[in-house]
TrEMBL record:
Taxonomic superkingdom: Eukaryota
Protein name in the entry: Predicted protein
Xref: PANTHER family: LEUCINE-RICH REPEAT SERINE/THREONINE-PROTEIN KINASE 1, LEUCINE-RICH REPEAT SERINE_THREONINE-PROTEIN KINASE 1
Cross-referenced Pfam families: LRR_1 (PF00560), LRR_6 (PF13516), LRR_8 (PF13855)
Database matches in SMART domains: LRR_RI
InterPro entries with a match to the protein in the record: Leu-rich_rpt, LRR_dom_sf, LRRC69/RLP
Length: 241
């Protein structure tokens, strides 16, 4: 009887595992335990997408394989331990909105050098947190709606230094006209959502100079007729609200 084992080619195995990239538990608790070959392929090739409710669900030896993480926290008394994020060196997308995060948590997030897309909506990090965010020079997409935890013009001044941004959602904050002036310095920005920010006609004048914008939501601000004229000058817009 022939007891030889058939070994799957590494490339084929890697492709098979890629179809399960959104099932962290299956990859970590099942596939990685099949054999040394499978473990090696998981470690070297798997790029994982994870949706979790707390940090207890993302502990283990494969954190460096996670490229996309969404934290769906349904317990407002619980706060995600952001220290663990520093082990996710390959993370490119992070959605951690509504998670009771403060400025120290944002400091840990700012260490993620490969992060491109970040959603930190409705977290109480304040202007100090905005300062840490502004150091993330690789970010191109940033969601930071304030809601109950708004930043003001000081925080907007930090965000206005992020010249690489293409998309910015900064609604429901209190940045005012001076904050709008800072945001208007983002010359690479093509999408801006800046509704409900205490912006008047002067702030609208600054936004009206952003000729690279293609999508703008400046609703629920008291820009008046004069401010509307400035926004109307943005002829390149394909979406305006």
């Amino acid at each position: 009887m022939n007891n030889s084992h058939h070994v799957i080619d590494d490339d084929i195995l890697g492709e098979i595992l890629s179809f399960h990239s959104d099932d962290f538990k299956f990859i970590a608790m099942s596939c990685a335990l099949v054999s040394k070959q499978w473990l090696k392929i998981v470690r070297e090739r798997c790029k994982l997408s994870v949706i979790c409710r707390n940090d207890r669900m993302v502990k283990g030896q494969f954190l460096q394989n996670i490229v996309t993480l969404k934290v769906e926290n349904r317990d407002l008394s619980f706060k995600f331990d952001c220290k663990i994020l520093e082990l996710m060196k390959q993370l490119t997308v992070l959605d951690i909105h509504y998670n009771n995060l403060g400025s120290e948590d944002i400091k840990h997030i700012s260490q993620l050098k490969k992060l491109r897309i970040l959603d930190i909506t409705a977290n109480d990090f304040g202007n100090e947190g905005a300062k840490y965010i502004s150091k993330m020079n690789q970010l191109t997409h940033l969601d930071m709606c304030g809601y109950l935890y708004p930043i003001d013009m000081g925080g907007a001044k930090y965000i206005g230094n992020m010249q690489q941004l293409r998309y910015l959602e900064i609604s429901e904050n209190e940045i005012g006209d001076e904050g709008a002036k800072s945001i208007s310095q983002l010359n690479q920005l093509t999408t801006l959502l800046i509704l409900s920010n205490n912006i008047g006609h002067i702030g609208a004048q600054y936004i009206g100079r952003m000729n690279q914008l293609t999508s703008l939501n400046i609703s629920n601000n008291d820009i008046g007729v004069e401010g509307a004229k400035h926004i109307h000058s943005l002829k390149q817009l394909t979406y305006l609200y």
